[in-house]
């Protein structure tokens, strides 16, 4: 399954409209540690490596043909330590954590999030609150095949219109964290055309 999602900066009223008559699925608290080289080699290439509560995930941009002729921003997620080391061309020396440390990788953002999850029809709504004061909402749909992704995006846009949400570019949590905490890293992402 492929997750198609759109992020929103939501007002209190928008949150009320979205969650009205939605089923509350529960709350999860998690810590993301994002990792890169000191000169931001991964993120300047739009590659995002994080450990979520100790479990590593690598997000890589999909090529245009994989994601509906490039009209969608979609990322491939790798979540086994062996595959991550292979893709990053790292010679394993112990665990991935140990291998990263031995190769000079360092954490650049540690973000604690409280995520409240709701379901409304075929849509999942995540409301994320972070420990650095940034809140964000995500509306998601799951599809089986990349060919269904564009339809799913349109359905999410229709769903957001029904709830009178404002459609605007939104910074994800880690990009906002970098913007607030590390201007040098943020400028490097701007110069690389990643954001
Ligand atoms: C920054 C980034 C990625 C890391 C994950 O970021 P995000 O989806 O904001 O985090 P989160 O916690 O909501 O993850 P989830 O729980 O949904 O897995 S993956 C890709 N990027 C880069 C990126 C980009 N280049 N452009 C845009 C518009 N967004 C993100």
In angstroms, what is the radius of gyration? 18 Å
Q: What gap, in angstroms, lies between the N and C termini?
A: 27 Å
Per the principal axes of the C-alpha atoms, what is the gross shape? globular
Mean pLDDT over the full residue set: 92
Task: Pick out its properties.
195 residues; alpha+beta; eight-stranded antiparallel beta sheet; 7 helices; 8 strands; binds Thiamine Triphosphate
Structure summary:
By secondary structure, the protein is of the alpha+beta class. Helices cover about 30% and strands about 35% of the residues. Strand 7 and strand 8 (about 135-145) form a beta hairpin.
Model description:
The chain is of the alpha+beta class and about 200 residues long. It has seven helices and eight strands, in the order E-H-E-H-E-E-E-H-H-E-E-E-H-H-H. The chain has helices spanning about 10-20, 40-45, 80-85, 95-100, 150-160, 175-180, 185-190, and strands spanning about 1-10, 25-35, 50, 55-60, 75-80, 105-120, 125-130, 135-145. An eight-stranded antiparallel β-sheet has the order 1-8-7-6-2-3-4-5, sandwiched between helices. Residues about 65-70 have low confidence and may be disordered. Thiamine Triphosphate binds near residues 46, 59 and 173.
How would you summarize the topology of this molecule?
Elements lengths: L1 E7 L3 H8 L3 E14 L4 H4 L3 E5 L2 E7 L13 E4 L2 H7 L8 H7 L3 E15 L2 E8 L4 E9 L5 H14 L10 H9 L1 H9 L4
Antiparallel strand pairs: 1-8, 2-3, 2-6, 3-4, 4-5, 6-7, 7-8
This protein binds Thiamine Triphosphate (V4E).
The site of Thiamine Triphosphate has 11 residues, from helix 6.
């Amino acid at each position: 399954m492929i997750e198609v999602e759109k992020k929103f900066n939501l007002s209190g009223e928008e949150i009320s409209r979205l969650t009205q008559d939605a089923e509350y699925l529960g709350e999860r608290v998690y810590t993301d540690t994002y990792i890169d080289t000191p000169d931001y080699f991964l993120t300047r290439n739009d590659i995002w490596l994080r450990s979520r509560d100790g479990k590593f995930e690598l997000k890589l941009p999909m090529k245009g043909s994989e994601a509906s002729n490039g009209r969608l921003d979609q990322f491939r997620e790798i979540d086994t330590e062996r595959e991550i080391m292979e893709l990053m061309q790292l010679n394993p020396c112990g665990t991935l954590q140990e291998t990263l440390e031995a190769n000079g990788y360092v954490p650049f953002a540690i973000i604690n999030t409280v995520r409240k999850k709701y379901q409304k029809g075929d849509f999942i709504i995540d409301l994320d609150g972070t420990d650095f004061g940034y809140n964000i909402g995500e509306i998601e749909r799951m599809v089986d095949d990349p060919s269904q992704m564009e339809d799913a995006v349109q359905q999410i846009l229709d769903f957001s219109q029904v709830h009178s949400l404002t459609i605007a570019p939104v910074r994800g949590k880690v990009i906002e964290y970098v913007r607030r905490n590390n201007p040098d890293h943020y400028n490097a992402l701007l110069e690389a055309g990643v954001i």
